[in-house]
Specification:
Shape: elongated
Structural class: mainly beta
Largest sheet: 14 strands, antiparallel, barrel
Oligomer: single chain
Number of domains: 1
Order of helices and strands: HHHHEEEEEEHHEEEHHEEEEEEEEEEE
Strand content: over 45%
CATH class: Mainly Beta
CATH superfamily: Outer membrane protein transport protein (OMPP1/FadL/TodX)
Distance between the termini: 13 Å
CATH architecture: Beta Barrel
Number of helices: 8
Strand order of the largest sheet: 1-2-3-5-6-7-8-11-12-15-16-17-18-20
CATH topology: Porin
Length: about 450
Amino acid sequence: MRLVAGACALCLWSGAAVASGFALHEESSEGMGNAFAGETARGTDASTIFYNPAGMAHLSSDEVDGNVSYLAPTSTFQGSNSSPLGGTVAGTSGGNAVQATPIGSVFAVYAPAPAWRIGLSVDVPYGLRTQYPSDWVGRYQALTSQVTNVEIELAASWQITDHLSIGGGPRLDYLQAQLTQALNMRAIGLGAAQQLAGLGQFAQAAGVAGLASTWGDGQASMTGSDWAVGYGAGALYTIDASTRLGIAYRSRIDNKISTELVNSLPSTVSAVPLIASNFTNQSVSAKITLPDSANVGLYHDINSQWTLLSDVQWTDWSVFRQLDILNTSGQSVTDTQEHWRNTWFLSLGADYRATSSLTLHAGLAYETTPVTDPYRNARIPDCNRRWLGLGASYAVTKSLDLHISYAHIFGYSVPIDEAAAANTAGGTLLGAYAGSIDMASAGMAFRF
């Protein structure tokens, strides 16, 4: 129970996105060793609630699983940010923009009748943590971008025939988002002075220009959360004693976050109503849609020692067209065009049963990004990924299995050409991002 409680606590942490967009695959330590190949068809432990709830029908007893993973991404920027005052924005390149973090998941399955299973899971299907220092050259595009997501899923499965089982149930989703960025108050003030001069108000223009030349950065931030509901469903078909095929679907979830946009300005700016009046705090809202996805998986025992696994996942990231922050009148405060596209995750893995107690795992995967080059931004500078996973499972007793795994994700160098929102006066961020991800995981499955 202490292990389960610890895993539940870790679910409150949402890590840096290590799947396409800001999705996370890392709900199973055993699955990480195979680069999550075959999870839709495996059905060998309680984590199948997340990947395919129909797989619960293959569990012969009640079970509790817990998994803890540590995600250590690296994402670095090289380039510059043009300044609306001419030249480039002074500052650092930002270092590693993505924070390392632990995440956890916990699953439980109960068998009330021979053909029925009931399951409960607490997991982290999405997450994002990018954090730049306050003196980063792209601070007018982004400073902090954080998405924390925890999901509670209640599922049931039914063994219809010896060959076919189905499963599904509701998903209760909690989403919290935090966005911050710097405001180039010096450029904003000097721009206002130019407008005043153009109107012939030369004395006032000179006064504003004199003050603005000494101004530092301001900051805009918003933090809010929402609860929403979706569902998951799946089917598992046993072709023969060695082979099974699984399909699964997870619905999209619409979250509407209502919060306050807070503008923090230098005291000398607050004393100038002409400028400060444009940066008053206000109630805002933003809609964030978590995409639906569909999976097909294959599990095949080649012989008593070798098992072949594969999975294909399609994710409907085209639902994420723009991030539009609206005020109470429905007017756009800021609008970031995303224009994401749908993605594919292709994986192939193998298990080798070295002894009656020890099983070794390996897997490869390739995943496409929803981000296209013209719309890449500093909050999610995503790219296509190649996966390599390795792991081991050990049956300590007939009731207890332990899992450990490691995976590395190879990224690509990708360009960025992002203009800052007009109200931040930040110029255009031009350069390239490069990154990779290391992950380690440990888990247990206890049957009783």
